[in-house]
Amino acid sequence: MADTSTKPYLLRALYEWCTDNGYTPHIAVKVDGSTQVPPEYVRKGEIVLNISFGATHGLKMDNEAISFKARFAGVAREIYVPVTHIMAIYAAENGQGMAFDVTAPAADATPAPAPEAAPLAAVPAEPSDTPEPPDGDDEPPKKGPRPTLTRIK
Fold first, then answer.
1. What is the DSSP string of 46-80?
2. Which of 8, 40, 117, 145 is the most exposed place for a label (fewest CB within 10 A)?
3. pTM
4. From CA 87, how far away is CA 139, in angstroms rounded?
5. pLDDT tens, 57-71?
């Protein structure tokens, strides 16, 4: 029998740590056909979602996926993210959290066990309860301070 992945347990533990300490938990997600997120907020195949109690309704974090309802620009949306597509979970206020390797399994292949996670360095992040609406421009991103996830081995 194959071992159960530790990733969903780590996600739930870090979510609880964020909420216990008054931080806003966010997840970074690799988007593809198996994820259900608002496509207009996806940038370069990725999206960051606020999964705090105040930003979600009916949050369910199980061993297979994270699902909830959330409002984007005032419109309620159903969100579904397989655990295998979560790249990181972190506190928006201080960037502390954990990053994960994400490998998209082939459509006909059996998914491999989730890789082990590496802790993140503290990274400044700007909290936001709702994502900014898309601007429709195809301009390159503006220069300036932008939060990044740094893997520490």
1. EEEEE-STTT-EEEEE-SSEEEEEEEETTEEEEEE
2. 145
3. 0.68
4. 25
5. 999 999 999 999 999
